[in-house]
Amino acid sequence: xxxxxxxxxxxxxxxxxxxxxxxxxxxxxxxxxxxxxxxxxxxxxxxxxxxxxxxxxxxxxxxxxxxxxxxxxxxxxxxxxxxxxxxxxxxxxxxxxxxxxxxxxxxxxxxxxxxxxxxxxxxxxxxxxxxxxxxxxxxxxxxxxxxxxxxxxxxxxxxxxxxxxxxxxxxxxxxxxxxxxxxxxxxxxxxxxxxxxxxxxxxxxxxxxxxxxxxxxxxxxxxxxxxxxxxxxxxxxxxxxxxxxxxxxxxxxxxxxxxxxxxxxxxxxxxxxxxxx
Length: 277
Fold this sequence. Notes:
By secondary structure, this protein is an alpha/beta fold. 18% of the residues lie in helices and 13% in strands. The N and C termini lie close together (11 Å).
């Protein structure tokens, strides 16, 4: 079992290293405690993809984390997220999230500075990766709902948030039932839910959501001329444009003297024997 650690920058004024920690494909069901104890205070980017993680206990030992990649795990609706004020990127592709509303409740409260979120491949996200029948209308409704709940987002899944889309989310996002949430609507509203997945609080009023002006890139299943991004990716990401997978580049700001180098650290099986994977 090996842990890959990259020292991406050294700030000599603060005498502090910035680490990118990669712990991939180890079939762990939880975050090994040795990771937080050894590298938690220095890690800015943590990649835990391709494990069997169900619980995020121990993530609070990474208080300065900025990017978290949890793709291809077993994270479901029971997960409890810790508070991470510095986190701006979260990738949860191909997990077991069904209840979109519950997840967004936690994200909005505990990740106040989140700018990039990707939920592709979850039941809560009606996209082609789930294997279910999902059309453009389903995905548009999902995006408007997520952007209404998380108005600070600049990227959702593989697409930048556009100004027209943000305006539409502010106006109509609360009416859109995003994803395939397992939580049932209140009984008083259940009978008023239409085929388009929208709800009305008055029996005689039918709410309709016009086609969103969002036009993802040509490689996606949707077509149309793209609007300008809400915020230029270069400015938001300080020189690195996020991709479908969470951005993997290090970011450094400020006028402090920095130096880039890489090193690898390998821990033996004996060292990790008691990590409770």
